[in-house]
Amino acid sequence: MREMNLRSVDLNLLVVLKALLEDRHVSKAAERLGMSQPAVSRALQRLRLSLEDPILVRTGTGYDLSSRAAQLQPQLEQVLVDVEAIMQPVVFDPFQAEGVLKLTGLDLELILLMPEFVRMLRHKAPNLSVEVVPQRSEHFELLERGEVHFTITGLYPQSGHDQFRRIEIAKSGHLCVLDQKNPLAEGQMSLHDYANASHGLVSITGKGPGMMDDALSELGLSRKVMLRLASFMSVTEFCQHSDLVFTLPAVMAQHLVKNTSLVVRPLPAEFDLSEVILYLYWHERFHHDPMCRWVRSELTQIFTPSL
């Protein structure tokens, strides 16, 4: 048997072949397809050459199928059904959908933003599971490798910017977090008091000075960082009953001080800081995925940049 090069096959011929096999007549097939009779005749000739078979054979009462054409007919029906299914857009039904939605992010960011989303999923997509993948030092790599569908972060990718898409889901100013017995917990904190305090720093990347170090430097000042942490979740334990001051996004600070001896205070008025923006990122590979499109649509309804 000679090898067939699929690149040379015109799939439109299969539609013509189906009509010819059903009608067993060139003119009737042409009428059904809305084609001219010569065009269908030419298609039949091409099919005969490709299949090395007459397809339609003359009988005493008209035309009938060749032996091979009769064998091909049920196969062709299934092939065209499969092709049509491939070409049809996928309709995502969240209530019937099954699968696993994978996301990653810092623990505190997920605690702040995801419970409402998960509650929505339990209502609208009860068979869709959620898996929180542990965050690594470079979570954009998880997106790039397709190991997660989404990541929530305030960071920016260092490379491959054109691979990632994002939507803004939260905005936040800054607050100082300190123990209620800290002398700086009363009244407005001056710039001098802030610069001379003992500071704690949460460094997600573990690299370089913090944002507040850069802000102080612009004002000709510096601070002493006495404790550097890798997670926002541990701030409470280290800050309580200590002289440390942590400067955190307000939405995180207000969450961490609940049911603790900690309080929040505004930054000195001299600081002019940009708001922290949290984004939902995804990779281009999932941009057109039906499940991910639906998730993004729901998230934009839940979250607004007002936090």
Account of the 3D structure:
The protein has 307 residues and is of the alpha/beta class. It has three domains: 6-87, Winged helix-like DNA-binding domain superfamily/Winged helix DNA-binding domain (Arc Repressor Mutant, subunit A); 99-171 and 277-302, Periplasmic binding protein-like II (D-Maltodextrin-Binding Protein, domain 2), CATH 3.40.190; 174-274, Periplasmic binding protein-like II (D-Maltodextrin-Binding Protein, domain 2, 3-Layer(aba) Sandwich), CATH 3.40.190. It contains eleven helices and twelve strands. It has helices at 12-23, 26-33, 37-51, 67-87, 107-124, 139-144, 191-196, 211-218, 235-239, 250-256, 290-302, and strands spanning 56-59, 62-65, 99-105, 128-132, 150-153, 164-172, 174-179, 198-202, 224-229, 244-249, 262-265, 276-283. It has a five-stranded mixed β-sheet. A five-stranded mixed β-sheet has the order 9-8-10-7-11. Helix 1 packs across helix 2 (26-33) and helix 2 crosses helix 3. The model has no long low-confidence stretch (mean pLDDT 88).
